[in-house]
Automatic annotation (TrEMBL):
EC number: 3.1.3.2
Chemical reaction(s) catalysed: a phosphate monoester + H2O = an alcohol + phosphate
Superkingdom, natural source: Eukaryota
Protein name: Purple acid phosphatase
Family, similarity comment: Belongs to the metallophosphoesterase superfamily. Purple acid phosphatase family.
Organism encoding this protein: Aegilops tauschii subsp. strangulata
Signal sequence segment: 1-19
Keywords: Glycoprotein, Hydrolase, Signal
Pfam families, sorted: Metallophos, Metallophos_C, Pur_ac_phosph_N
GO MF assignments: acid phosphatase activity; metal ion binding
Domain Calcineurin-like phosphoesterase per the UniProt entry, residue ranges: 188-394
Purple acid phosphatase N-terminal domain mapped to chain residues: 63-176
Amino acid sequence: WMWKGSLPLLLLAAAVAAAAEPASTLEGPSRPVTVPLREDRGHAVDLPDTDPRVQRRVTGWAPEQIAVALSAAPTSAWVSWITGDFQMGGAVKPLDPGTVGSVVRYGLAADSLAREATGEALVYSQLYPFEGLQNYTSGIIHHVRILGLEPGTKYYYQCGDPAIPGAMSAVHAFRTMPDVGPRSYPGRIAVVGDLGLTYNTTSTVEHMASNQPDLVYANLYLTNGTGTDCYSCSFAKSTPIHETYQPRWDYWGRYMEPVTSSTPMMVVEGNHEIEQQIGNKTFAAYSARFAFPSMESESFSPFYYSFDAGGIHFIMLAAYADYSKSGEQYRWLEKDLAKVDRSVTPWLVAGWHAPWYSTYKAHYREAECMRVAMEELLYSYGLDIVFTGHVHAYERSNRVFNYTLDPCGAVHISVGDGGNREKMATTHADDPGRCPEPLSTPDDFMGGFCAFNFTSGPAAGSFCWDRQPDYSAYRESSFGHGILEVKNETYALWKWHRNQDLYQGAVGDEIYIVREPERCLLKSSIAVLRL
């Protein structure tokens, strides 16, 4: 009778387990969900420059702001760091990059760093031709590419200049990505957007680090470089160029070093990285501070590039550079996609800053020109997942193409609020009376005006839906980060971790994203047609 008496308990346990299993895209489009706004908004105030976590902790030519980035393949990686301090003022004199060497010593044990690689160094400046604005010049930024690494292997390293006393870092360690192939994947990939450098940021980063990611994808902006806490208090009240407060880049690099020195981080530019200065120069800090696999992926641009991580081919695209079909970025994308062999890297994941499928009022349909130019090409190659930011709220779509539910469309996920200081998006374009006016003038950097009233579907004749659109599966105004766990060539588990869940073991949003190549037309270098 014990067996009979236990049967209801067994059935109950099975039912609970089944109920706890995340939903799957195999089940078809999910009904749209909007999570009510919480009163607790966290602490969206910048860390002050007196916080020990952002202050310079080294002396002389010792390295700081150490970071690891991936190359296009797991057999190489980039190590970056800064030596010397920045200068800020009316007249600044750049440091000589040749003053300090760019050397990385590395090996398989902390006490056996027998191999050595060298790289290059540079400085950048942010200059303004107006009185009342403070110029800036950076410390010496070093980038070294390490070659001949074994996939899926832990390496120990030091960086700096061994010829100068006290100019080498402590020993750090990182792990290379698994070998490229359909059966090997990074354990966890963390995804953050618009991280900023606030007290909310510290909560996001702590939460993210507790999940022990193998790779971090950061959809900028990372810093609050767009101004000080009180812009008009610190600088001229009216200037043709809005000054960007460059020291916050250094503060962010110092704060993040415990993460970035051991976990590879890949980035893509956003609108806050434009940072226009004298001579209409833009993206100076972004282009100088990070290492990109641009040469390896043959884009030769810091704004768009690709790399492999196990069985995933990642493509980073630029929403703030020319994306027209006649432009260099589009031609590079065509070539890159044509080289992808889906029998080797089954998953195709892309990232850029401004979302194509956001239903929030903020930045609504702002990137429509980019979508019109590129979506059909990406769709024809079976793009699986898109990560974006910019909107300062979380949203996940159903599989969608051209605003229509499509089993072969990509899942678009916007992770736009990791803790930045700007206002979180809380209103939706489908809220009564909240539909924004169509843009009357094109954005200088977004490349035109393409958002018109819909011509078909439930919103035909209107600029906005009158309810949460069918393609929007889940949306929530919350700070947090995401974790992508690719299980095999078919299944990937996506989780959205809200900051408020840090000590509760809870997950805000969770779903299995399932590839169905047999249903979809895939263009690839192996020219396979699966019906």
